[in-house]
Amino acid sequence: MPNAPAPPVTVVDATGLVLGRAASLIAKRLLNGETIVVVNAEQSVVTGGRSQVVAHYTEARARGSVRSGPHFPRYADRIFRRTVRGMLPHLQTRGKVAFRRLQVHIGVPPEYAGHPTETIEGAKARPTLRPPVTLAEITKLLGARG
Predict the structure, then answer these.
(1) What pLDDT, in 10s, does the model give residues 47-95?
(2) 103: phi then psi, degrees, rounded to nearest 5
(3) What is the Cα–Cα distance from 86 to 24, expressed in whole angstroms?
(4) Looking at residue 144, what DSSP letter applies?
(5) Which secondary-structure segment (H or E) carries 39?
(6) Beta bridge partners of 9
(7) Which of 59, 70, 80, 138 sits at a 20 to 30 Å CA gap from 46?
């Protein structure tokens, strides 16, 4: 059987995108068969009051036990992946297959440095009086190294 050509990869820059909105739109595209690579995941934002957002993520991280879970990530790329996973039927085969077509990176890896990126218009954060909380700030508070 000859090697099939690799499916086209869509590179999405998450800078300034609202985490939940971007995750839901990416989940839809994954279910439609696209392969998506997300770069600059740490620059995506979470809307809401800073104390409320921080409390939500610290509670999620502290929930459960070390042995049996649930295990909530502390790094930005893994938080982004888990948010997308929550919007997929990840316990069904089609959701598992779709989730495997997602890659999320902190920053821009060298293999995608020259690749054209796109942004998701429906997920852009609107300007507000208070600056939104980025995933980089959340991961720092959760104790991520680096």
Answers:
(1) 999 999 999 999 998 888 888 888 889 999 999 999 999 999 999 999 9
(2) -125, 135
(3) 9
(4) -
(5) strand 35-39
(6) 35
(7) 70
